[in-house]
Known about the structure:
By secondary structure, the chain is an alpha/beta fold. Helices cover 44% and strands 9% of the residues.
Amino acid sequence: xxxxxxxxxxxxxxxxxxxxxxxxxxxxxxxxxxxxxxxxxxxxxxxxxxxxxxxxxxxxxxxxxxxxxxxxxxxxxxxxxxxxxxxxxxxxxxxxxxxxxxxxxxxxxxxxxxxxxxxxxxxxxxxxxxxxxxxxxxxxxxxxxxxxxxxxxxxxxxxxxxxxxxxxxxxxxxxxxxxxxxxxxxxxxxxxxxxxxxxxxxxxxxxxxxxxxxxxxxxxxxxxxxxxxxxxxxxxxxxxxxxxxxxxxxxxxxxxxxxxxxxxxxxxxxxxxxxxxxxxxxxxxxxxxxxxxxxxxxxxxxxxxxxxxxxxxxxxxxxxxxxxxxxxxxxxxxxxxxxxxxxxxxxxxxxxxxxxxxxxxxxxxxxxxxxxxxxxxxxxxxxxxxxxxxxx
Length: 392
């Protein structure tokens, strides 16, 4: 429990929702009790897959940092330390759900079926946008967003579309603020960090989500630093409290605990699809690496702080939990080999990614052929041809 007073108001907060302690022992917080039922249908094979997802992405993440240092990627945004909450939340989603990430949700994208080379391709600068998801059971993961905050409005707009589709199916074309919610086939999830909460786009997106009871879940990964600005300088109170003010159900979780991420996201997404409105998760985590490969975190944070969070590494912690369940040493040895093979294969594929043709920039704007795209494609072809005609 933490207690503070702001402008004379007692701002006592419950302990963040967690099921695993820092050593990976199953020790639910009091605040986790109401979400425990969401874990009942998980079995050991599910938990093993979560672990495999995390170690594969960690190995890939490390490889991409090396590739950027070698000049093979223009930039890289590491997610080391943030895999725990991501893997739980991603596995709580359903195929019809649509996800709007930022640029650090590598585990989320991987779980949803995005190829690792496609993720790296955006940072290598060999894609004009859009990626194919090969697993038909997943998908619906939008391209990474570099203009932070905009994805929150995209998510609310998409979720409002989900509401309107459901109303049309029920024989209504009405979409007015203040109406009761309606059940939808899918929900929307948007991810961003603590720094992005300072942008107006996020607040505006929550206004629309609450007003229209849109089936959207905000996942705010509070990794303590907005590049070099500490979260304490951005907000005098826990950030999830802002969402409560907009009318969203909101909680704070241990963002390094995959079980907490899964349980809360599953409950909130089920409620959103049932027409009960939007939710908000503040996942307390830590960016153990740099903000991006152009950043030097040693200039603004202390080594002791980093070390304290290394002791709460979500992969090490989850491994401890699996070992307590009796998972064998052979599994972890095999997982390490699989992760290494995946990272090495991704590296080789990244180095051979083809340069995109100019036409590809028009391929992912609309789902169906569009005359505007045809006209722009023709204009570009004529423009490029004019250089040859003039001998330039």
